[in-house]
Amino acid sequence: MTSDDQPGAAPAAPPRFGANYTPSQGWFHHWLDFDLDAVRRDLDAIAALGLDHVRVFPIWPYFQPNRTLIRPRAVEQLVALADAAAERGLDVNVDGLQGHLSSFDFLPAWTQTWHRRNLFTDPEVVSGQREYLRTLAAALADRPNFIGMTIGNEINQFAAGPHPDPDRITEAEAEAWLRQVLDACEEGAPGRLHLHAEYDAAWYQDDQPFTPAHAARLGAVTAVHSWVFNGTAQRHGRDGVATGQHAAYLIELSKAWALDPHRPVWLQEVGAPAPLIPAADAAAFTETTVAAALDCAGLWGVTWWCSHDVSRSLADFPELEYSLGLLTNDGEVKPGGAALARLAKEARAVAPAPRTTALVVDIGPDGGRRSACGPGGPVFEAFARLAGDGVRPAVVLAERVADAGHLAERGITEVVHPSDVL
């Protein structure tokens, strides 16, 4: 589904719990030396936590090294991984355009240097992307455990700074690209949960061409990626209210732009980054973050980043990337993993009470002042202040405050402005 007109279905209940699968052997380079037995061991460990799905990451240049070559063997290996997951009771979401992972960019040679073309607007590049996404989706379309496609991992980072060499586009061009690639996924696997996912610049960065409206209106669900190293933990500390509420804030912020008040939201990435969240505090951070997210209506699920730590034998990762796993590189359950396992086991199909107080976001009809929503901005800080005072705030756009029907459908009975709070 790609329409921004179609009402979303009520989310499955209880919320889904899963992990972003980072292979313990070779990280995502495992596709170059694919070992299905090693994958099975990893999936056994994930399933033992009581999780119900994984998000997996084909590496785009490994799968499509030439614009007109999608390697059949690589596609077969992806299907084998999905089948192994099914044997362990795990559903699978597939990210297509990798894209960007853990500070590394993976782009095919046919988009770079001598063949440099805009990733979002060049007709031949977009045609190649569409064929690739359609091929992956079609290969999995008959698998009952296939959730659907995510277009790519935080691909908006290629469209603006601080990327060192961005492919700059307009908001209109971003929307046109999203519609084309989402349609390709639907052509390959009709009726599955196809979506796109951006990092939080879409919500917080004024000049980011991928906008909150794109995130909240295109695709089958809204995806949010919550990382407190974005200034939140630096400003509020490891145990600050804003730090523990950051994921919930993004979920509620996303609802302000949704046309369907019941559109599901997927907390698709969230993790405990050291040293901002020390290892000794990872379990508490996990519990606080997930509990706050579960207090948001319409939560499709929580997918933790990530399943396994990155091996110290691999070089040049940012330090925090090595220790984000629910499991060690050897498959031992870490305290954060035990906490998520417990939360998954205890999750119930209980709809949260409506959030009757809504914080007003007034950043212009084009969202040009999104920085007001980021850490240190008045919207962000007002939400944190309200949450610290025991209020469960929703968020509403200024232009919808006078829409009584919209407020009633969301259960909102009171609106407050950041200036009323700070």
From TrEMBL:
Protein name as annotated: Glycosyl hydrolase
Gene3D superfamilies for the chain: Glycosidases (3.20.20.80)
Lineage summary: Bacteria, Bacillati, Actinomycetota, Actinomycetes, Kitasatosporales
InterPro entries reported in the protein's UniProt record: GH (IPR017853)
Species name: Streptomyces longispororuber
